[in-house]
Amino acid sequence: MIRAIVTDIEGTTSDIRFVHQVLFPFARKHLEPWLTRHQHEALIAHSLDDLRQELGQPQASQAELITALYAFMDQDRKSPALKALQGMIWRDGYLNGDFTGDLYADVPPALRAWQQRDIILCVYSSGSVAAQKLLFGYSDAGDLTGLFSHWFDTHVGGKREVTSYRNIQQQLGLPPQELLFLSDIHQELDAARSAGWHTLQLVRDQPDTGSTHRQVASFAEINPELLPI
To answer: Which residue, among 191, 185, 117, has the nearest Cα to 157 in the 3D structure?
Structure first.
Protein backbone atom coordinates (compact mmCIF):
# COMPACT_ATOMS: atom_id res chain seq x y z
CA MET A 1 0.00 0.00 0.00
CA ILE A 2 1.33 3.43 -0.97
CA ARG A 3 1.13 5.85 1.94
CA ALA A 4 3.28 8.68 0.56
CA ILE A 5 3.96 10.02 -2.93
CA VAL A 6 7.06 12.12 -3.57
CA THR A 7 7.10 14.03 -6.85
CA ASP A 8 9.73 15.75 -8.90
CA ILE A 9 8.76 19.06 -10.55
CA GLU A 10 10.60 19.82 -13.79
CA GLY A 11 9.26 17.56 -16.55
CA THR A 12 6.95 15.81 -14.08
CA THR A 13 4.43 18.29 -12.68
CA SER A 14 5.59 21.18 -14.85
CA ASP A 15 6.67 21.67 -18.43
CA ILE A 16 10.45 21.77 -18.58
CA ARG A 17 10.14 24.77 -20.90
CA PHE A 18 8.68 26.87 -18.08
CA VAL A 19 11.87 26.46 -16.08
CA HIS A 20 14.26 26.96 -18.99
CA GLN A 21 12.35 29.60 -20.94
CA VAL A 22 10.76 31.61 -18.12
CA LEU A 23 12.37 31.10 -14.70
CA PHE A 24 16.03 30.75 -15.65
CA PRO A 25 16.07 33.75 -18.05
CA PHE A 26 14.22 35.89 -15.47
CA ALA A 27 16.81 35.11 -12.80
CA ARG A 28 19.68 35.74 -15.19
CA LYS A 29 18.28 39.08 -16.34
CA HIS A 30 17.66 40.36 -12.83
CA LEU A 31 20.60 38.80 -10.97
CA GLU A 32 23.10 41.67 -10.98
CA PRO A 33 20.74 44.61 -10.26
CA TRP A 34 18.82 42.52 -7.71
CA LEU A 35 22.00 41.61 -5.82
CA THR A 36 23.13 45.24 -5.88
CA ARG A 37 19.87 46.28 -4.23
CA HIS A 38 19.68 43.48 -1.67
CA GLN A 39 23.29 42.45 -0.95
CA HIS A 40 23.27 43.79 2.61
CA GLU A 41 20.11 41.97 3.67
CA ALA A 42 20.91 39.15 6.08
CA LEU A 43 19.46 36.28 4.04
CA ILE A 44 21.16 37.36 0.82
CA ALA A 45 24.46 38.04 2.58
CA HIS A 46 24.29 34.56 4.09
CA SER A 47 23.76 32.99 0.66
CA LEU A 48 26.70 34.96 -0.73
CA ASP A 49 28.88 33.71 2.12
CA ASP A 50 27.73 30.16 1.31
CA LEU A 51 28.78 30.79 -2.29
CA ARG A 52 32.23 31.96 -1.15
CA GLN A 53 32.62 28.73 0.80
CA GLU A 54 31.45 26.70 -2.18
CA LEU A 55 34.05 28.42 -4.35
CA GLY A 56 36.77 28.13 -1.71
CA GLN A 57 37.28 31.90 -1.99
CA PRO A 58 36.34 33.47 1.37
CA GLN A 59 37.44 36.93 0.22
CA ALA A 60 35.70 36.90 -3.17
CA SER A 61 34.27 40.25 -4.18
CA GLN A 62 30.67 40.70 -5.27
CA ALA A 63 31.81 41.09 -8.88
CA GLU A 64 33.64 37.75 -8.64
CA LEU A 65 30.57 36.13 -7.09
CA ILE A 66 28.33 37.41 -9.86
CA THR A 67 30.74 36.04 -12.48
CA ALA A 68 30.67 32.67 -10.71
CA LEU A 69 26.87 32.67 -10.56
CA TYR A 70 26.60 33.33 -14.29
CA ALA A 71 29.04 30.48 -14.90
CA PHE A 72 26.99 28.16 -12.67
CA MET A 73 23.88 29.10 -14.66
CA ASP A 74 25.65 28.26 -17.92
CA GLN A 75 26.69 24.89 -16.47
CA ASP A 76 23.24 24.21 -14.92
CA ARG A 77 25.18 23.51 -11.75
CA LYS A 78 23.15 22.34 -8.75
CA SER A 79 24.70 24.94 -6.47
CA PRO A 80 22.77 25.42 -3.21
CA ALA A 81 23.75 29.09 -3.09
CA LEU A 82 22.65 29.69 -6.68
CA LYS A 83 19.36 27.85 -6.11
CA ALA A 84 18.66 29.92 -2.99
CA LEU A 85 19.35 33.21 -4.78
CA GLN A 86 17.33 32.20 -7.83
CA GLY A 87 14.41 31.35 -5.57
CA MET A 88 14.51 34.80 -3.97
CA ILE A 89 14.62 36.51 -7.36
CA TRP A 90 11.72 34.37 -8.60
CA ARG A 91 9.74 35.32 -5.51
CA ASP A 92 9.74 38.92 -6.70
CA GLY A 93 8.58 37.75 -10.12
CA TYR A 94 5.69 35.76 -8.67
CA LEU A 95 4.66 38.56 -6.31
CA ASN A 96 4.78 41.14 -9.12
CA GLY A 97 2.69 38.95 -11.40
CA ASP A 98 5.43 38.53 -14.01
CA PHE A 99 4.47 34.83 -14.26
CA THR A 100 2.57 32.08 -12.46
CA GLY A 101 3.75 28.58 -11.62
CA ASP A 102 3.22 26.27 -14.56
CA LEU A 103 1.51 22.94 -13.89
CA TYR A 104 0.23 20.32 -16.28
CA ALA A 105 -3.59 20.31 -16.19
CA ASP A 106 -3.71 16.71 -14.94
CA VAL A 107 -1.61 17.46 -11.85
CA PRO A 108 -3.88 19.52 -9.49
CA PRO A 109 -6.91 17.16 -9.61
CA ALA A 110 -4.70 14.12 -9.02
CA LEU A 111 -2.95 15.76 -6.07
CA ARG A 112 -6.28 16.72 -4.50
CA ALA A 113 -7.67 13.21 -5.00
CA TRP A 114 -4.62 11.58 -3.44
CA GLN A 115 -4.71 13.89 -0.44
CA GLN A 116 -8.38 13.08 0.09
CA ARG A 117 -7.37 9.41 0.24
CA ASP A 118 -4.99 10.30 3.10
CA ILE A 119 -1.86 9.82 1.00
CA ILE A 120 1.02 12.00 2.20
CA LEU A 121 2.24 14.26 -0.60
CA CYS A 122 5.81 15.56 -0.85
CA VAL A 123 8.04 17.38 -3.31
CA TYR A 124 11.67 16.52 -4.06
CA SER A 125 13.37 18.81 -6.54
CA SER A 126 16.85 20.18 -7.20
CA GLY A 127 15.34 23.64 -6.87
CA SER A 128 15.30 25.08 -3.37
CA VAL A 129 12.37 24.41 -1.05
CA ALA A 130 11.56 28.13 -1.21
CA ALA A 131 11.37 27.98 -5.02
CA GLN A 132 9.20 24.85 -4.85
CA LYS A 133 6.72 26.55 -2.56
CA LEU A 134 6.57 29.59 -4.83
CA LEU A 135 5.77 27.48 -7.90
CA PHE A 136 2.94 25.63 -6.16
CA GLY A 137 1.84 28.65 -4.13
CA TYR A 138 1.47 30.90 -7.16
CA SER A 139 0.47 28.20 -9.64
CA ASP A 140 -1.90 28.45 -12.57
CA ALA A 141 -4.38 26.50 -10.41
CA GLY A 142 -3.99 28.71 -7.33
CA ASP A 143 -2.24 28.02 -4.05
CA LEU A 144 -1.61 24.27 -3.76
CA THR A 145 0.99 24.36 -1.00
CA GLY A 146 -1.56 23.08 1.52
CA LEU A 147 -1.67 19.74 -0.31
CA PHE A 148 1.93 18.95 0.59
CA SER A 149 3.27 17.79 3.93
CA HIS A 150 7.01 17.73 3.19
CA TRP A 151 9.42 19.54 0.88
CA PHE A 152 12.89 18.24 -0.01
CA ASP A 153 15.75 19.70 -2.04
CA THR A 154 19.38 18.74 -2.51
CA HIS A 155 20.09 19.29 1.18
CA VAL A 156 19.02 15.65 1.55
CA GLY A 157 21.42 14.69 -1.27
CA GLY A 158 21.57 14.53 -5.05
CA LYS A 159 18.58 13.14 -6.90
CA ARG A 160 20.58 10.32 -8.48
CA GLU A 161 22.02 9.15 -5.15
CA VAL A 162 20.47 6.20 -3.31
CA THR A 163 21.25 7.74 0.07
CA SER A 164 19.01 10.72 -0.73
CA TYR A 165 15.94 8.50 -0.86
CA ARG A 166 16.96 6.73 2.32
CA ASN A 167 17.26 10.12 4.00
CA ILE A 168 13.79 11.10 2.82
CA GLN A 169 12.38 7.77 3.95
CA GLN A 170 13.85 8.26 7.42
CA GLN A 171 12.34 11.73 7.66
CA LEU A 172 8.93 10.43 6.60
CA GLY A 173 9.15 7.55 9.06
CA LEU A 174 7.64 5.06 6.64
CA PRO A 175 9.01 1.81 5.19
CA PRO A 176 10.35 2.20 1.62
CA GLN A 177 7.76 -0.19 0.17
CA GLU A 178 5.07 2.35 1.11
CA LEU A 179 6.74 5.17 -0.85
CA LEU A 180 6.25 6.11 -4.50
CA PHE A 181 8.56 8.46 -6.42
CA LEU A 182 7.43 10.22 -9.59
CA SER A 183 10.01 11.64 -11.99
CA ASP A 184 10.70 12.01 -15.70
CA ILE A 185 14.38 11.03 -15.27
CA HIS A 186 15.04 7.30 -15.12
CA GLN A 187 18.40 7.70 -13.37
CA GLU A 188 16.62 9.36 -10.45
CA LEU A 189 14.07 6.57 -10.42
CA ASP A 190 16.90 4.01 -10.49
CA ALA A 191 18.25 5.50 -7.25
CA ALA A 192 14.82 5.51 -5.59
CA ARG A 193 14.19 1.89 -6.59
CA SER A 194 17.60 0.89 -5.24
CA ALA A 195 16.44 2.36 -1.92
CA GLY A 196 13.40 0.07 -2.01
CA TRP A 197 10.83 2.59 -3.29
CA HIS A 198 8.14 2.12 -5.90
CA THR A 199 8.66 4.26 -9.00
CA LEU A 200 6.71 5.63 -11.95
CA GLN A 201 8.20 7.57 -14.83
CA LEU A 202 6.34 10.48 -16.39
CA VAL A 203 6.88 10.59 -20.14
CA ARG A 204 5.06 13.67 -21.33
CA ASP A 205 6.35 13.59 -24.91
CA GLN A 206 7.73 10.21 -25.91
CA PRO A 207 8.71 6.95 -24.19
CA ASP A 208 12.15 6.61 -22.62
CA THR A 209 13.57 3.53 -24.32
CA GLY A 210 16.49 3.39 -21.91
CA SER A 211 14.26 3.05 -18.86
CA THR A 212 13.13 -0.08 -17.00
CA HIS A 213 10.45 1.75 -15.00
CA ARG A 214 6.73 1.71 -15.68
CA GLN A 215 5.89 4.78 -17.75
CA VAL A 216 2.76 6.93 -17.75
CA ALA A 217 1.88 9.99 -19.78
CA SER A 218 -0.01 11.90 -17.08
CA PHE A 219 -0.98 11.93 -13.43
CA ALA A 220 -4.47 10.84 -14.49
CA GLU A 221 -3.05 7.38 -15.28
CA ILE A 222 -1.68 6.87 -11.75
CA ASN A 223 -3.70 4.85 -9.26
CA PRO A 224 -1.65 4.36 -6.09
CA GLU A 225 -4.07 1.67 -4.89
CA LEU A 226 -2.94 -0.60 -7.74
CA LEU A 227 0.65 -0.57 -6.49
CA PRO A 228 2.83 -2.52 -5.86
CA ILE A 229 3.16 -3.30 -9.53
So the answer is: 191
The model's pTM: 0.89
The string of pLDDT tens digits covering residues 205-226 is 889 999 999 999 999 999 988 7
> CA-to-CA distance for 5 and 97, rounded, in angstroms?
30
How many Cα atoms within 13 Å fall on the side-chain side of residue 115? 15
Question: What values do phi and psi take at 185, rounded to 5?
Answer: -105, 115
Mean pLDDT of 162-173: 98
Contact indicator for 185, 9 with CB cutoff of 8 Å: no
Rg (CA), the chain: 18
Q: How far apart (Å, rounded) are the C-alpha atoms in residues 123 and 9?
A: 7
Task: Tell me: pLDDT of 115 over 90.
Answer: yes
Distance, in Å, from the CA atom of 205 to the CA atom of 218, rounded to the nearest integer, reads 10
> Which domains are assigned to the chain?
4-15+101-226 (3.40.50.1000), 19-95 (1.10.720)
